[in-house]
Specification:
Immunoglobulin-like, single chain, six-stranded antiparallel sheet, about 40% strand, 4 domains, Coagulation Factor XIII, Chain A, domain 2, alpha+beta, 39 strands, nine-stranded mixed sheet
Length: about 700
């Protein structure tokens, strides 16, 4: 009997294949390729040469713990004369006798994840199997047949390959960017992303079925949104909206996803403490980009949380102008989610493209805390019956806001209705720059237009309220454009009487420290004027002082104070209300790069901070990190107590591992000041090795 040639070695050609598949940022220590494209390997034989006439070779590809042909997690295919990119197949590139070069192609709908590659050699009817190695297969947005195909190259570069970016926070009139280190290509992150899939409820309940669905970005993205929070499963982050963050890390401290994902894996898939919406969204963005799904973080200002699913947010205040919790509905000053790009063959035509995915645990979807994918086009067109969770997202950007006065006797009176407040300045980072891109028009037509009215009718929102007619008596709140944390400031209520009658009012002004999701913490200033007279055609201004000494103890890490002005006109019992959220500005961190920005050469960052508060700061610590620049560094403040106005400097040493434009993100925290952020763009020149 003829001897079967034996496999002596395998060259997976990781450098050439990974580079061709745009996965070279993962490194070249193993094979990571994208589906729908060919890759080449070389098999070395021993004993005797491979003989095409005598030896029949086929390849076996397996994924999952129990691969099977019925579930599509195992496939065996012979060598072909030419490649067909619609299915698993392979062809000979060259045959040197004891060295066989093969080109292998996966279909554009192959299961993503870890795969084992085997070679079956049959000589005179005797099959012998050889293990060739393992590779990771990812989604392929560069392949036109892939469900995540994105035909614009600079969008692929931004939404798949960019491992750093900006997130947006604050309030609609004070939008603040923070740098985020997505880090999807850092050591071990791709393994952690796959570990996350393996720990999902779907996989735990039916591993075979779960693996068989891993070709579908709709399925994968939904699993990711469920697993980024830990509410139902062994998810990554535990949410905490403050103000107590003991036994964990305050959400504002994080600069990136890498530490969070590594900590989750190291803890044996126990949740990392703590996350809030932008952290949930940023970690989801890391995972989805890592798996090859084009993804971008989104921030919606004045975001509605509609718990009653009536597309209306009811807000109550008492006769002292203070917020009263009569409804579970709320308006978040900002809320973050992500959009991922994919086709939607599960829906009627027209809803491919960007899909909303929200991993922040707000409401359950099909029994678990996840949200999406909801087509952005369906949200704009009012087709709220589309899967998944489209009505909830529609409300986040379109719900009405109704203000009520809760009288002392328990009765309620509507003050005003606003159909324009919710869903403003919807933002994401622009492609290739640090500019903010406003994508509000993707979600909704401009308020008051004919198209906007048609969408509401289409969505059958019979409870949708129209804006009240323009009043002759109204109230507005005004503040300085920038208010610094640590300073006293004033807010002014302007009562405008455009009528021909005298208006006699009770005017209440109230300032409260709040969480960014709108929950009140504590009053920090209050004024009640029982008689304010406003003459015809008069604008009367009443000021309220807000002192640092009054807000400092309960100001949360988002630095937000809500001002409410309530006017009650005695003669007509007309009610006027105005609200304004003030985001106090933290000081800037000064970051200076010392040395030549060259790949693999040591660099230094000099970071300066000046205490803006009228009190001493203690327990200061700087956190520094940057994808391709440095792992997270914790640098203690060089002095134990920073006096008011005092400057401190620290230095961070690092050795850039990647060239190109990089972001160094810095966070400073201390006992009385949290989430002081800064970043520095650094262009690292490549070094040939």
């Amino acid at each position: 009997m003829a001897q079967t040639p034996k496999v002596a070695g395998i060259d997976l050609q990781c450098k050439a294949n990974n580079t061709a598949h745009k996965t070279d940022d993962f490194g070249f220590s193993r094979l990571i390729v994208r589906r729908g494209s060919r890759f080449t390997i070389t098999v070395h034989f021993t004993g005797r040469d491979y003989q095409p006439g005598a030896d029949k070779i086929s390849l076996i590809v397996e994924t999952g713990l129990a691969p099977s042909e019925t579930s599509g997690t195992k496939v065996q295919f012979p060598l072909s004369n030419s490649l067909d990119e619609s299915k698993w197949n392979a062809a000979i590139v060259s045959n040197g006798g004891n060295e066989l070069s093969l080109s292998i192609c996966s279909p554009a709908n192959a299961k993503i994840g870890r795969h084992i590659l085997k070679l079956m050699c049959t000589t005179q009817g005797q099959p012998t199997s050889f293990y060739l190695g393992e590779f990771i297969l990812l989604f392929n947005p560069w392949c036109s047949a892939d469900a995540v195909f994105l035909h614009i190259e600079n969008q692929c570069k931004e939404y798949v390959l960019n491992d750093q970016g900006l997130l947006y926070q604050g309030s609609k009139k004070f939008i603040s960017p923070i740098a985020w280190n997505f880090g999807q290509f850092e050591d071990g992150i791709v393994d952690i992303c796959l570990e996350m899939l393996d720990n999902s409820l779907n996989c735990m309940q039916n591993q075979d079925e779960d693996c068989s669905k891993r070709h579908d970005p709709v399925y994968i993205s939904r699993v990711v949104t469920a697993m980024v929070n830990c509410n139902d499963d062994k998810g990554i982050l535990l949410g905490n909206w403050g103000p107590d963050y003991s036994n964990g890390t305050p959400p504002t401290t994080w600069n990136g996803s890498i530490t969070i994902l590594r900590q989750w894996s190291k803890l044996g898939c126990r949740p990392v403490r703590y996350g809030q919406c932008w952290v949930f969204a940023a970690v989801a963005c890391t995972v989805l980009r890592c798996l090859g799904i084009p993804t971008r973080p989104i921030t919606n200002f004045n975001s509605a949380h509609d718990t009653e699913q009536n597309l209306r947010i009811d807000s109550y205040i008492d006769e002292n102008g203070k917020s009263v919790k009569e409804s579970k509905d709320s308006i978040w000053n900002f809320h973050c989610w992500v959009e991922s790009w994919m086709t939607r063959p599960d829906l009627k035509p027209g809803y491919d493209g960007w899909q909303v995915l929200d991993p922040t645990p707000q409401e359950k979807s099909e029994g678990i805390y996840c949200c999406g994918p909801a087509p952005v086009k369906a949200i704009k067109s009012g087709d709220i019956d589309q899967n998944f969770d489209t009505p909830f997202v529609f409300a986040e950007v379109n719900a009405d806001y109704v203000s009520w006065l809760l009288r002392n006797d328990g009765s309620k009176k509507q003050i005003m209705a606003n159909s324009r407040l919710v869903g403003q300045n919807i933002s994401t980072k622009a492609i290739g720059t640090d500019e903010r891109e406003d994508v509000t028009n993707n979600y909704k037509y401009q308020e008051g237009t004919k198209e906007e009215r048609e969408v509401f009718n289409k969505a059958d929102m019979k409870t949708k309220l129209t804006n009240e007619p323009k009043k002759e008596f109204f109230i507005k709140l005004k503040t300085d454009k920038v208010n610094m944390n640590g300073s006293d400031f004033q807010v002014s209520a302007v009562l405008s009487n455009k009528s021909s009658e005298i208006k006699n009012c009770r005017l209440i002004l109230c300032a409260q420290t709040i969480l960014y999701n709108g929950k009140a913490i504590k009053d920090c200033s209050w004024k009640d004027l029982e008689k304010v007279t406003v003459l015809p055609q008069e604008d009367k201004t009443v000021s309220l002082g807000v002192l640092y000494s009054d807000y400092s103890e309960t100001l949360t890490e988002q630095n937000q104070i809500r001002i409410v002005a309530l006017a009650i006109e005695y003669n007509s019992e007309e009610l006027l209300i105005a609200r304004k959220v003030i985001s106090l500005r933290n000081p800037d961190l000064s970051i200076k790069i010392v040395g030549e920005p060259l790949q693999y050469r040591d660099l230094m960052a000099e970071i300066c901070f000046t205490n803006p508060l009228p009190v001493n700061l203690c327990d200061g610590i700087f956190l520094v990190e940057g994808a391709g620049l440095t792992e997270e560094q914790k640098i203690p403040c060089p002095i134990s107590s920073i006096t008011p106005g005092q400057e401190v400097k620290v230095r961070a040493k690092f050795t850039p591992q990647k060239s190109g434009l990089r972001k160094l993100a810095v966070d400073f925290d201390c006992n009385k000041l949290k989430g002081v952020k800064g970043f520095k763009n650094v262009i690292i020149r490549p070094m040939n090795r």
